[in-house]
Structure formats: structure tokens, C-alpha cells
Amino acid sequence: MPDSATAGLLTAADDAELLVLGFRGLTGVAGFPLGSVSQRVVARSSRPVVLVRAGETSADGVSPEEIPESPYRDVVLGLDTRRPCDELIEFAFASARRCGAPLHVIHAFRAASADAPEGGQEPVSGPEVLAAHERTVVAALRPWCEKFPEVAVTGTVAEGRAAGELVRASTGAPLVVVGRRARDGHFGAHIGPVAHAVLHHTGCPVAVVPHA
After folding, report:
1. What angle, rounded to 10 degrees, do the helices at 86-99 and 126-147 form?
2. CA distances from 84 to 22, 63, 94, 189 (A)
3. What is the dotted CATH code of the domain comprising 2-59+73-211?
4. Cα separation of 84 and 68, whole Å?
5. Fewest Cβ atoms closer than 10 Å to its Cβ: which of 10, 57, 140, 142?
């Protein structure tokens, strides 16, 4: 049954721009588990997939339909500047514009040579590393800020784990947008560690956008 359900959803997604899946979560602070069908669809879909926990409401405990004049809080985007993806960034900006919400861009990095921004000599001190990453984020977002001038953008650049920063920023958010690198190979499709952690520990809707 899970395989047939997965195949049916993936077939339907081929002719769609977006696939939205709902599922039940656990009560309490543990977040919600990702069911086998949802996990397989997210890992294999060629289209963006939005997962919404059953009974999800706004941060104040009131459904959005009950407060149509109240704007959403920030849409949150997880950005990896080593592999900036047009599809991911555009999806986040378009979602924020559709919600009438600001966009909060999160970029977390680990202070190591392999994670340094591309171009130029690698900074050696903490403030220099941070400033270099901030410049890279600004450069990656500049064309999209010009394309979506009505979307207010704020950014958080911090040393640490991306998943943890995204989970913290997700409180009260209408949507968190993360990427999934699409891989064709013999080892099957995978969600990726950051997207996997966000899906399991974030209570708000999460959009997973596949990219090359």
C-alpha cells in the first residue's frame, strides 16, 4: 500500500506545480514524525512538496481564515551559499509575496576550510569569516530582491548547524523553505540531513524544493 500510494502521488505531481501533503503529528514538544509515504514522496518528487501537520494553526492558536487581515509572520528560507539554487530562492520569495509576509533568510556555516565562501583567500578570524559569509548571502539574494521588490527581506548569518537555526527561526512562521538536492543514482533518493531534521522537528508547514 505505501508503494502504490507513493507512486500515485508522484504520478499526480508530474502534472502539477506543487504537491501538498497533510499528516498527523505527535503532541508535545517532540515535533512530528514523517510517515513512510510522505518521506518517499518528498525524496522522489520532481516538484516542490509542502507538508502540513493536521490541525496546524497560526502562532496565536487561531486559524488564518479567522484573521484574514492579520499578516503572516516571516516565511523562513534556509540558504546554502555553496550551492545557491534559483528554484529554491524563487519559491521562497514567491511564497512570501503570496502570503504578504517578510522573508527571513537563514544561512548557517561551520568555521572550516571546506565551508568557506568561494572566491579570494579564506579569512582566518571569526569576524572576517562572518563578514565574508554575509557578503556572499547578500550577493546571492540581490537579483531576487530586485525581482521581488515588494518582499521585505531580513537575514541571519550565524556559525552553527543549519537545522538548529532553521528550527529556532520556524516558531510562528507560516512556512519554512528548504532545498533537497536531486540525485540520480543507484543508491536511491534521499531528503538530505538538513531537510530531514527540519521536517522532524518543525511544527509549521515545510516546503521541500528539489534542485540540481
Report:
1. 60
2. 28, 33, 16, 20
3. 3.40.50.12370
4. 34
5. 142
Residue found under cell 583567500? 121
pLDDT tens digits, 155-203: 999 999 999 999 999 988 999 999 998 765 444 557 888 988 898 888 8
Q: What angle do CA 141, 147, 149 make, to 5 degrees?
A: 90
- 66-114 pLDDT, tens digit each: 434 445 689 999 999 988 789 999 999 999 999 999 999 999 998 764 4
User: What Cα–Cα distance (Å) separates residue 208 from each residue in 44, 65, 86, 192, 203?
Assistant: 11, 24, 14, 10, 15
Query: HEC states along 132-149?
Result: HHHHHHHHHHHHHHHHCC
